[in-house]
Amino acid sequence: MQNNYAKIISGIYTDILSKENLGKVPDYIPEIAKISADKFGVAFLDLDKNSFVEGDYKEKFSIQSISKVFSLTLVYKHLGEKLWERVDVEPSGNAFNSLVQLEADNGIPRNPFINAGALVVCDILLDIFENPKQEILNFIRNITGEINISYNKKVAASEMENGFRNAAMCNFMKSFGNIKNNPNEVLDLYFNLCSIEMSCENLSKSFLFLANGGKNPINNEEILSSSKTKRINAIMLTCGFYDESGEFSFLVGLPGKSGVGGGIVAVLPNHYCITVWSPKLNLKGNSYRGMKFLEEFTTQTGESIF
Ligand code: DON
After folding, report:
1. In 3D, which of 111, 104, 69 has the Cα closest to residue 88?
2. Which UniProt keyword terms apply here (predicted)?
């Protein structure tokens, strides 16, 4: 290790904590709006098992769109390249819940990390597995070794009641034939996946295979081939932050994925995974402090994929 990660992480954490926490906790999912805006956690984990943590790193929070990486991993593993007939791999340049490109693109979402793309992935999960909810939980529990990771039924119900845009999107894609199952079943699975609760520590463990060429760093078993792993990292880099993906790549320089619960997970292939959680979001829906932290982290360590 050339860098003193412990010192860099605690220095950035203290510095950001001393500054104003801008942004806003989203209010469109009422159950999430209740979370304390000042929560702030960091968990760094590398392939040599070095771990450096700060603040609320052990507290579980709603992973929201970060779950899209788990569902994509399972579907891509089972379906292979046929998946790309149903969802593209181009950045959308639009908000994560936008409908605007779907009509021109004949119901094919731009990528698997915008909501429309994640709904198609959920539709495929329903076809592949008898019990996709259990399958996703098994995957996450195995890779983290933490059996207490689960769905938050209240958060899922709160979104089901208020998720009119997602419902519109799902029905619209059904009209193009790109949703095969009953849209309500697809939405139920999607909202449940968004409601999974994990800590920064859990998330860094669960994403470390993406820094390890697709192999589980605990037992070296292959989760995904190295080629598929490269591609998931590529989609995280180009699409992981919606219409702020270019900015994240520009400022941070790592593949990553954010969620409206305030979490951001980022990966440096062959090296480490880092998760930051702070619930206040910027205008694009990404954690304000999470972005600041990671920008400073790759600047001070001098390490990124570029
Ligand atoms: O569907 C939604 O709007 C949320 N359940 C997930 C959105 C999300 O996390 C996008 N993230 N930045």
Report:
1. 111
2. Acetylation, Hydrolase
Average pLDDT per consecutive 10 residues, the chain (306 residues; last block may be shorter): 90 97 92 92 97 98 98 98 97 92 96 98 98 98 96 95 96 98 98 98 98 95 97 98 95 98 98 98 95 98 97
260 labeled binding residue: yes
Ligand 1 geometric centre to CA of 10 (Å): 29
Q: Is 190 annotated as a binding residue?
A: yes
Residue 40 included in any domain: yes
* 306 occurs within a structural domain: no
Q: What is the CATH number of the domain that holds 98?
A: 3.40.710.10
pTM over 0.80: yes
Nearest-atom number in ligand 1 for the CA of 195 is 5
Rounded to the nearest whole angstrom, what is the distance from the C-alpha of residue 11 to the centroid of ligand 1?
Answer: 30
Count how many domains the chain has: 1
- CA distances (Å), origin 75, targets 33, 124, 158, 214: 31, 7, 26, 15
Q: Do 249 and 237 touch, CB atoms closer than 8 A?
A: yes
Asked if residue 159 belongs to a known ligand binding site, the reply is yes
Q: Which domain range does residue 267 map to?
A: 5-301
In ligand 1, which atom is closest to the CA atom of 65?
9
Distance 190 CA to ligand 1 centre (A): 10
